[in-house]
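Sorry to interrupt, but I need a hand with the structure work. Go ahead and set the record down below:
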Amino acid sequence: MGKRAVVLLSGGLDSAVTLAVARSSGYRCRTLSFDYGQRHRAELACAENVSAVLGAAEHHVVSLDADSFRGSALTDDIPVPKGREVDSGSAGIPVTYVPARNLVFLSLGVAHAEIIDAEAVFIGVNALDYSGYPDCRADFIEAFQNAAVLGTRRGREGRPCRIETPLIDLTKAEIIRRGDGLGVDFSLTSSCYDPDAQGRACGSCDSCQLRRAGFESAGVADPTVYRSEGVTL
């Protein structure tokens, strides 16, 4: 069957590029998306499309208890910050942080890797993202890798599942250029924290601003569909 991997797929730009990297490295991929009560649910449809187009062998949506992820602007009735300077997020962890999200998602990813005897779990975390989410940093990934070795059968048998983070040290422009080189169709992805009912991006949340600036810096055409009132060009 060749090499196998589990890829955590949100439907956003970074996770799509991560899947493309895994596929280009010769992995047969199971993609995992998570329904955790997120407000921006358009991403789930995007993830399914990205998984199919990039040639994943199978796609699973894991339903989680929404009450376990409250307290974030992405899951609760808390306003999503709009129109602020992109680098202002470095002042602290923003309200769009979802409590322990990647800790939970990686744990389920490792569980699926044990089920299918996969060598790796890929996640599209990025430590250079201005937002500074604690579960996207290299020290967290290293600590989780150690825990996965100690807490799984594969790990105890001396063949641990690796946590692969191919984008962790890349800028957004570098991520976009890498995905473009691998043939990623970015029009299939959704990054907005507050899309409308048609899935159109607001254009002014932190994620939209970071995405648009990344395309501009990369010199790659931005295929994002914005709702007109949210965009300043």
